[in-house]
Design goal:
two-stranded antiparallel ribbon, 10% strand, mainly alpha, single chain
Amino acid sequence: MRYLLWVVKFALFLLVFSLAVKNTDPVAVRYYLGAEWQAPLIFVILVAFCAGAAFGVVACLPQLFRLRRELTALRSGLPRKEVDRAGVETQRKLHNGLQAGH
């Protein structure tokens, strides 16, 4: 199984490497007010991918922190009813915040 995983990783690396080699042409990314950035296409794709991954991680942080607080509360021995009430209140606040944004 370990060898199969290495073969899959190597194949994925070759796929990404060949994509990078084939997409070295410079492209212009135009911004507002005439600003422009020129870079190789693969670099622009990599920056966009990394920015999307970073935004995804940041979007998951509030839920991660809430779950860690609940886990800490459960480990400290609080009654289950208080932990559930806190979770329901957090969900209610989140739901109300999402509705206010529409």
